[in-house]
Structure prediction request, 223 residues.
Amino acid sequence: MNSRAIAAEASGTFMLMASVLGAAFYSFGAPAGAAGILGVALSIGCTVMVMAYAVGHISGGHFNPAVTLGLVAGGRFEASKAVPYIIAQVVGALAACGVFSLVGHTGATFAANGYGELSMLKASLTEVFILETVLTAFFLVVIMGVTRANGPALLAPVAIGLTLTAIHLMSIPISNTSVNPARSFGPAIFAGGEALTQVWVFWAAPILGGVIGGLFGKWLLED
Prediction:
């Protein structure tokens, strides 16, 4: 396994997690006016886009266990490399959460994903599971499409970043938006309690969606 690829995945996921936490913790209550859901969505979309440009040539710029496993399902990534990538992604997310825990002002739930009382709209487990699965599948189809051999390589990070922005605009009120098990795991560890008991949903649904999207993308896009 290429150590540079592992470092790229860890650092990219660190920045992805930081973009979620920084916007969620601080921009909602900023004295100059809250950035709100749009601010959080743009923060993570722009961060993933620029990190894909910065280190995507090293590791592929997954930054997400569901993406890694979806690309395995779609025949775009070697299964033997998946576990080291996922470990690096989780470590990156945990490291970002650790930094923000030192900064403080994090809120009791630490921007954790969830259903019921952890959902802005008090969405149910079933509602959250369905939406996280569908949106992750959608995300993988976009990734498969824009990174195909004859695809728009230079614009692929833009398309991926804008897709993630749209996903957050759609689902922050329902689940606080995961579509990424590493993003969910870090805050759940630091929040503990109910967030930790619910974190399994944000591994199961995004991974299921990622595999579905990878398989569907392979069928749809490849000759």
About this structure: Residues 57 and 120 are 37 Å apart (CA to CA). The chain has a mean pLDDT of 93.
